Structure formats: C-alpha cells, structure tokens
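go over my protein:
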Amino acid sequence: QLDWIKGWKAALKDDRFNIMMIPYEQFNRSKETVLLEIISFFGFDTEIVNIVWPKSSGRKSHNIDLDTHFRRGVIGSYKEELSPIQIKRMNQFNDKALFDYFGWSYI
C-alpha cells in the first residue's frame, strides 16, 4: 500500500480533520448537487449561489470537449485503458478497504 493512501485513510478516521471526500462517480452523476454540497461544506450559503458552467468553444479531440474536460470521464474506463497486469499491480498498492470506502469494485 502506498504511503499517501495510508495517510488519507488515517486522516479520514481522525476527528481533528474535517475532510470531505467525493468519489468521481458521485460528481459525475450530479455535478450541481455535489458542487452545492462542497459550497455548504465550506460554510457558504447555497441559497445565494448561482452556478455558471463554463461555455465551450467547440474545440474537440476524440469527441472530448477540450475546454471543459481533462480526461475521458467514463466511469470504470481504466478497465479498458490498463492491461490486466497493470490493474493487478495497481490493486497490490491499494487496500481493499479504500475500494470499499468508495464503493468501487476490487478487481
């Protein structure tokens, strides 16, 4: 297991820290809801917030909007992008508890 993963797992259990963890899957399902949760987490009034999404110039590469996305944005796409050997190696560095915490499948 990687040290930075151990550190985050420990921080999540430590009452001295107020940490909000948001899985990409949750954000992808409902961006506006998650953004309002983040705004509320930081103590701001969500009633006065007007979320304005970035406008695209239409520049695309492989059907990806280059102005608003930095990755493909497909949940679970790593299964197609990584080889089985790479996935196995990645899982060796990660603790199953981290996958369970986020509700990810452990391959």
